[in-house]
Design brief:
Elements: H1 15-33, H2 36-53, H3 81-91, H4 99-118, H5 122-135, H6 138-154, H7 158-175, H8 178-194, H9 198-214, H10 218-234, H11 238-254, H12 258-274, H13 278-294, H14 298-314, H15 318-334, H16 338-354, H17 358-374, H18 378-394, H19 398-414, H20 418-434, H21 438-455, H22 458-474, H23 478-495, H24 498-514, H25 518-534, H26 538-555
Length: 564
């Protein structure tokens, strides 16, 4: 066994490492002895030799402030862009340096920032955007800072992202750039929503849209409108969401932005899916996919395919769901989109879990977690942990599921994802209720409800109220259960959450049977069972029928119609 102090012993150095160590010191000393002008020329030479070795000068990228999303073209120098930017900066320090050294520094800092961002080296990419911003006029400085802020937000660093957005906003205001101001307000709104400040998020998006309209920037206005539509959807404001999705689609058509139109149609299809309008959702997803394929937007196509797979799963077509998930996964891997790859693996894992393929599900969840950790996507790491916990609970591994949900909550709190924190707490409360801990379940349901109301998450509020009502039913507090079921079902109808409307109508029927209100119970049962049949929820309907039959037998009444 080697001794503990071997790295402190001179004998542990080989002749080669000793030479390299001395050589590095000598090289640094020799460099420092050179006059500044000579150093600058040495860097100029190094820049020239590296650039020529990697295919010569890279092309100039599109302007930073271009409204349309430019098509990206790689170049061999991208791999050494950071080094080229460094040598260009040092060369620019020479007394006789011309504008070409500064231009080269601007070019390669930009390309380094974009290259590192695509490689998920986020901290390095953000430093490049910040360094680039210092060299740019104030208006373009704001755009460079905005791009760094977007990277920080994607990797679960909302506080740093917000600070950089604020700096970008100051730049846009100094330059009198109303379009830039509107765009940065849209990004700030996303951060506000992600961190639970939903009223501020909504107001900020509305301000952004007004400014972009005033600035005659319809494409950017369309982006902000699509984001506002998504916010309305998450808050359960279905009619407002649908109207705003349609406005965004119209704006994209106005400017001829087919890619934007395809993405906005995918968002509208997602709204239809969430609100149980399955035929409209399927038709709109296919319209979206046709456009995204027409413009060769592989990333958008992959996401749309994944969402279409969710629809197939919810409408009882698991084979088609799996096929679409795999197509989406293939696209994400082909274009190196690790974010989407991680998200799709999480969805595929949930499908495997529902089909009883537990080993495949766990492997896919683990792969998804590894990817999210690799790219620093802490936000989705927390979400995938929640999915893994749900699978563990379904498999009866209660202790493991509890531990995993606690890990998810810790991540959500770290990245200030209040909405997902509320969802995870609601799931933890359900676990407590299923494992005989009613007091802990009740207090955690109430904690989750407070977060849902704080973040304006009406769909999750309805689900949690219904699950709390089930707890009250199980613990014999029938009148409390009746009240909470009524509130839950009202919210489900408001936000068009058909799945949970059906479930909680059936649960409420059991409560009403126990209270002796048999006629009302039968009406609730028929409505709930009809919804579950319509949505192809055969397993859920069978479970509900068993619970209803037990309630009817205990109350001495005939069971209602069966699950067929």
């Amino acid at each position: 066994m080697p001794s503990a102090d071997r790295f402190d012993s001179p004998s542990s150095f080989t002749a080669e490492t000793a030479y390299l160590f001395r050589h590095a010191l000598l090289r640094e000393a020799a460099y420092e002895l050179q006059p500044p002008g000579v150093r600058a020329r040495l860097h100029e030479l190094a820049f020239f030799l590296i650039e020529q070795s990697f295919g010569g000068r890279a092309p100039e990228p599109p302007p930073l402030d271009a409204e349309a999303l430019p098509e990206h073209h790689t170049h061999p120098t991208d791999a050494v862009a950071y080094e080229l930017a460094y040598h260009a900066r040092k060369a620019a320090e020479g007394e006789d340096a011309g504008e070409s050294a500064l231009a080269a520094q601007l070019l390669y800092l930009r390309r380094a920032a974009e290259f590192l961002g695509r490689r998920y080296q986020i901290d390095a990419a953000v430093r490049c955007w910040q360094a680039l911003a210092l060299l740019l006029p104030v208006r373009l400085r704001g755009e460079a800072l905005r791009r760094g802020a977007v990277l920080l937000a994607r990797t679960g660093k909302p506080r740093q992202s917000e600070e950089m957005c604020d700096s970008a906003m100051e730049c846009f205001r100094q330059a009198g750039d109303r379009r830039g101001e509107g765009i940065i307000l849209g990004h700030l709104a996303t951060l506000y929503e992600q961190t639970g400040r939903v009223e501020l998020a909504e107001n900020t998006l509305q301000r952004a849209i007004a400014i972009l309209r005033e600035a005659a920037a319809p494409r950017s206005e369309a982006v902000a409108s699509a984001n506002l539509a998504d916010l309305y959807q998450r808050r359960g404001r279905v009619d407002s969401s649908e109207d705003t999705h349609r406005k965004a689609i119209a704006l994209y058509r106005q400017v001829g932005d087919r890619r934007g139109e395809g993405l906005a149609l995918a968002g509208l299809a997602g709204l239809y899916l969430e609100t149980g309008r399955m035929d409209s959702a399927e038709t709109t997803f296919h319209r979206s996919l046709a456009i995204l394929r027409e413009v060769n937007d592989k990333a958008g196509e992959g996401v749309a395919l994944s969402n279409l797979a969710v629809l197939y799963d919810k409408t009882g077509r698991p084979a088609l769901a799996e096929e679409n998930y795999n197509q989406s996964l293939t696209i994400a891997r082909a274009i190196g989109d690790r974010f989407t790859e991680g998200n799709v693996l999480g969805n595929l894992a949930a499908l495997f879990s529902l089909d009883g393929r537990t080993e495949l599900a766990e492997a896919a969840f683990r792969q998804a977690l590894a990817i999210h950790r690799e790219v620093g996507n802490r936000r989705y790491e927390g979400i995938v942990l929640g999915g893994l916990a749900a699978m563990q609970l379904d498999a009866g591994r209660i202790g493991l599921a509890e531990s995993t949900w606690h890990s998810a909550v810790r991540v959500h709190r770290e990245v200030r994802n209040r909405r997902s924190e509320g969802v995870a707490l609601g799931n933890l409360a359900f676990l407590y209720s299923q494992s005989g801990r009613p007091e802990q379940a009740e207090s955690t349901f109430i904690e989750a409800l407070a977060i849902h109301r704080e973040t304006g998450d009406r769909p999750s509020e309805g689900v949690t109220l219904g699950n709390l009502a089930c707890l009250y039913l199980e613990t014999g507090r029938l009148h409390l259960a009746d009240t909470e079921f009524l509130q839950a079902v009202a919210i489900h109808r408001e936000v068009k959450n058909r799945h949970f409307e059906g479930l909680h109508l059936c649960d409420h029927a059991c409560c009403l049977v126990t209270l002796g209100r048999t006629a009302n119970a039968a009406d609730h049962w028929r409505k709930g069972a009809a919804i579950l049949r319509e949505l192809h929820r055969g397993n859920e309907l069978a479970r509900q029928f068993a619970a209803m039959r037990r309630a009817c037998l205990n109350a001495g009444v005939e069971p209602f119609d069966g699950p067929g």
